[in-house]
Amino acid sequence: MMDTEGSEIHMGELGSAPSAKTEDGEIWIFSVQTFDSPRPESTININYDGFAEDVKVGDELLVDSGMVRFDVIEKIGPDVKCRCTDPGLLLPRANLIFWRDGKDVDFIAISFVKSAEGIKHLKSYIATRSRDSDIAVIAKIESINSLKNLEEIIQASDGAMVARGDLGAHIPLEQVSSAQQKIVQLCKHLNKPVIVAS
To answer: Which family does it belong to (predicted)?
Structure first.
């Protein structure tokens, strides 16, 4: 069994400290710059070069699926200045997503479960490396882009998984139950197995 992950934006290491605590209202800089000398205080490296270009002032940054939240208040060249609105613990390699107008913003290339084409490529790749094996592809529905292409994704897959926790970080929580119901009903209609995960 293999769980392939879509493209994600991640934070870099936090220097010598294993974690960093944030405070409400505190200002942090998220940067794509690399620093030869010690990184400036309250600055975090990001692994995506187009980060500062794609993000907008007013976006909400969710770290580690919403464990810590920031508002984007200013862009300065390759740096994005943010104010902490929901404090917590920052951990190295934590994933980042942005909400704009209450919706997840997808910055990077299409992931395997965002289109039927991606699933076909994945199936082809698996088939060439595991001849005479019966391998099924279950599409993990975990982002707003997956929901947009839901029917074609499920038709191209051998089944689907409703990733409720991940969906709750990408769409408003009150929409998760209706999205789950839609996925389950569509799978039943197309005679495909469906897994509901927490």
So the answer is: Belongs to the pyruvate kinase family.
> Tell me: the pLDDT tens digits for 21-34?
999 999 999 988 87
Taking residue 92's Cβ as centre, other Cβ atoms within 10 Å add up to 16
Number of domains in the chain: 2
Name 11's Cβ contacts closer than 8 Å, sequence gap at least 6.
Answer: 30, 44, 45, 46, 47, 63, 90, 92, 93, 94, 96
| 170 shares a domain with 99 | no
If asked whether residues 133 and 96 sit together in one domain, one would say no
In this prediction, residue 132 carries a pLDDT of 65
Cα 177 to Cα 52, 58, 153, 162, 174: the distances in Å are 33, 27, 19, 10, 7
Taking the whole predicted model, whether its pTM rises above 0.70 is answered as: no
